[in-house]
Amino acid sequence: MKKVGKPVFFVVLILIAAFTALSFFGVSTAYGDNTHTYIKGVDDIRWGIDIRGGVDVTFTPPADYDASPEEMAAAESIIKVRMVSQNITDYETYVDDSKDRIIVRFPWKQGESDFNPEQAVKELGETALLTFREGNEYTGPVVIEGKHVTSARAVLNSQTNEPMVELNLNTEGAQLFSEATGRLVGQPISIWMDENRISSATVKTQIPNGVATISGGFDVKGAQDLAEKINAGALPFKLETENFSSISPTLGLGARDAMVTAGVIAFILVALFIILIYRMSGVVATIALVGQVAGMIACLTGFFAPFPSFTLTLPGIAGIILSIGMGVDANVITSERIKEELRNGKTLDGAIDSGFQRTFAAIFDGNITMVLVAIILMGAFGPPSSIFGTIFSPIFRWFGASATGAIYSFGYTLIVGVIFNFIMGVTASRLMLKSISKFKPFKKAWLYGGDK
Amino acid sequence: MKQIDIVGRRKIWFTISIVLIVIAILASFFPGVKLDIQFSGGTIVTYSFNGDLDKGEFQSSIENSLGQKVTLREQNDVNTGATNYVITLNSKSGVTPDQQIAVNTALNEKFPGADIQTASISNVDPSIGRDFLLKSVVAVAVASILMIVYIAFRFRKMNGWSAGVIAVAALVHDLIIAYGAFVVCGFPLNDSFIAVMLTILGYSINNTIIVYDRIRENRRLLPVKTSYKDLVNISVNQSMSRSINTTVSTVIAVGCVCVMSLVYNVSSILTFSFPLLVGMFAGFFSSMFISGSLWTLWQEHKLAKK
Asked: Which residues does the UniProt record annotate as the domain SecDF P1 head subdomain (chain A) (predicted)?
């Protein structure tokens, strides 16, 4: 094995301490009201709705209606528009085409005490009312409605290559639109979903044939969005709620605090236990464990500001605590081996070397099964678009997307725990133990489990 | 170090295991397996309110509004110290948000000033529940198959297939006992149950692998004529302190979660952490006392047949 110098212990220690401080507290600067976050700390963790309260709902078309993927996408866009109009921006939606389901999750609005989840869900699922109105106000006379639109799609202008939205109207719609556009040349017509204005355009010429285009200022995405929303207004069905759960924030926050306390107590007890049993190796294991927890926190917050954070739920916290308990296993296996080698008469240095070398396979084996299990958990209970959801989609797609973000978070903390266990419990521990054992006061075999 | 004659006392270990498995099986029929509404479909609503409300009137005004029977149970909210009423609908068909709004209106008319609020609602359509149950079963099946493939691969090369079969049996043993914790405690089976099953599947095999690796190593180190019984006894005893210490630290961690969720009434975590704790004990027990003993039995049987 490579030689490990004396200062390595302190280098590793300082690195772990710095990493821990960063991942817990983050780095941000504040100029007046503007806070700029460079590194995200625990305050930036996205709590799951089982903690901060919120609504989890599954919508579906009426039982006898078989919706096409386009219709489902249109229905999803109705929900998104309505979310934003209710000032809820922190929502998640998943569409499951094979089962015609739309899963929507959104948190309780901050500072809202008498939020009415039943009402919110009811409004989300209602048939969208799409109207084209004269002028830019909702009070303007209605030109045509959603039922007059047969389809809308994003197209590219064959001459300018500019993205635009093409509308196809039915006969009645074509007549109404022809009349109105003839009258309103040079004036605006606005498009509304419920009471939200989704677009507005100026009439250039009369449109007599029922094929209209809306152009100007779109990128491709913007044109697709608008087409989807217009299609949504033409949807012939109302969404029904198949699944519906809601939890108030007081219940969840109390549970979170209890779990965080459990985590702190568990950490202290586990640390005391391994220090008591393995002395110096236990101290090193505890430092490694701090690094492991910090690594898990960093993976939840996203650490560097541009990375997305990962929702943490109650089972997710339980997963972190479980990883604390299981993470020690690597140190236990090596410490036991070092103890044994010392008793067999090896020198301290030789015992530490062979302790780490001969146990690597066992530790690897122990962790690979947890990784397998965590991946399956994430594949089965995660959103279908997630990486593991995609891997397992041939197996799980027949059963529809699931609505349990809670267990998904558990799988994530487990897998992240294993990864950091390798970095900290194996690599960092070895470096620390090798270097600390070179210092005279720590050069005693009994500190590592040998005889006095 | 003192050696414990583990294989010699195998009758004790087998009896303990058989008794636990029988309890788990019996409890599946009495009191019986409860499926969470996540799987079966149904509605559970928790109401918070101020002051004292008559339970019977509360229940009947909900029943009148919905036109169907419900059951009411009291629950203490540890955070606020207040009492909540938990309503379970007897029908599995679920309610619409419209109906829920009607119930809330009816309740607040009946008990003005009590500030009745829905603290939580859980409403699952039976068809979505069935899908979710199937998906969960498939998740467990896929994990089991992967684990068996892993064990087969790992053991065929290193420990022989008899050890592999016993390792699988030990896993099944641990899963049954963790499942037993659910049914004996009356916890409904839900996504936490699946998470517990999978976690034990991943965790418990490792203790067993450590023991078999010791057996393999000692076979080379110990004299050729060492009996299977001695070989297993020595190996299990050597891995004992590692297994105990790993199990203790995991049990400390899960135990803290379990105790805190019990004290603070976090039922979603209690129903998850307690069976996990039981499963971890079962995993320790089976790897230390069952799998080695079973293997000895198998090998001796093979010798006798020759």
From this structure: 142-236
- My answer on whether A270 and A305 are in the same domain is yes
Confidence (pLDDT) at A111: 59
The model carries a pTM of 0.85
pLDDT value of position A110: 59
Domain of B150 in residue numbering reads as: 7-37+128-305
Q: For residue B76, is pLDDT > 80?
A: no
Look up the CATH number of the domain holding residue B112.
3.30.70.3400
- The verdict on residue B59 lying in a domain is yes
| pLDDT value of residue A394 | 67
User: How many Å is the maximal CA-CA distance in chain A?
Assistant: 101
Alpha-carbon span B135 to B143, nearest angstrom: 12
Percent composition of chain A: helix, strand, coil (DSSP 3-state, to 5): 55, 20, 25
Shared domain for B33 and B140, answered yes or no, is yes
- Residue whose token pair is 């500001």: A305
- Residue A2 falls inside a structural domain: no
Instruction: Please name the residue that has the structure tokens 């491709």.
Output: A220
pLDDT of residue B116: 84
pLDDT band at B2 (very low <50, low <70, confident <90, very high): low
Domain end call among A208, A233, A258: A233
CB contact under 8 Å between A242 and B125, yes or no, is: yes
pLDDT band at B91 (very low <50, low <70, confident <90, very high): confident
Does the pLDDT of residue B171 top 90, yes or no?
yes
- Sheet harboring A130-134: ordered strands across? A142-145, A130-134, A188-193, A196-202
Q: Does A362 touch chain B (CB under 8 A)?
A: yes
Kindly report, residue by residue over B254-301, the tens digit of the pLDDT. Answer: 999 999 999 988 888 999 999 999 999 999 999 999 999 999 998 888
The answer to whether residue A314 neighbours chain B at the CB level (below 8 Å) is yes
B246: CATH? 1.20.1640.10
The two tokens of residue A360 are 């690597």
Q: What is the pLDDT of residue A200?
A: 86
Judged by a CB distance cut-off of 8 A, whether residue A112 touches chain B is: no
- Find the residue in A nearest to B203 (Cα): A370
Candidates A72, A58, A49, A70; CA nearest to A104 is A58
Number of domains in chain B: 2
pLDDT attached to residue B282: 96
ipTM confidence score: 0.90
> Residue A36 belongs to what H/E stretch?
strand A34-39
Residues of chain A short of pLDDT 50, as ranges, are none
pLDDT in tens, B175-208: 999 999 999 999 999 888 999 999 999 998 888 8
Report the pLDDT averaged over residues B129-140: 86
User: What is the CATH classification number for the domain harbouring A396?
Assistant: 1.20.1640.10
Phi, psi of B47 (to 5 degrees): -110, 135
Q: Tell me, yes or no, whether A341 and A389 share the same domain.
A: yes
Residue in chain A closest to B97 (alpha carbons) equals A118
Please check whether residue A306 lies inside any domain of the structure: yes
Q: What is the pLDDT of residue B212?
A: 86
Residues of B in contact with A117 (CB under 8 A): 118, 121
How far, in Å, are B62, B63, B105, B118 from residue B66 at the CA level?
A: 6, 5, 12, 16
* Tokens encoding A255: 């549970």
Mutate which of A329, A344, A378 to disrupt the B interface (most B C-beta within 10 Å)?
A329
Tell me if residue B190 falls in helix, strand or coil.
coil
| Total Cβ atoms within 10 A of residue B93 | 11
Full DSSP string of A37-86? EEE--GGG--B-HHHH-EEEEEEE--TT----HHHHHHHHHHHHHHHHHT
Interface subset of A 398-417, CB within 8 angstroms of B: 399-400, 402-404, 406-407, 410-411, 414
Could you list the residue range(s) of the whole structural domain that residue A272 is in?
A: 8-44+248-448
Is the pLDDT at B172 greater than 90, yes or no? Answer: yes
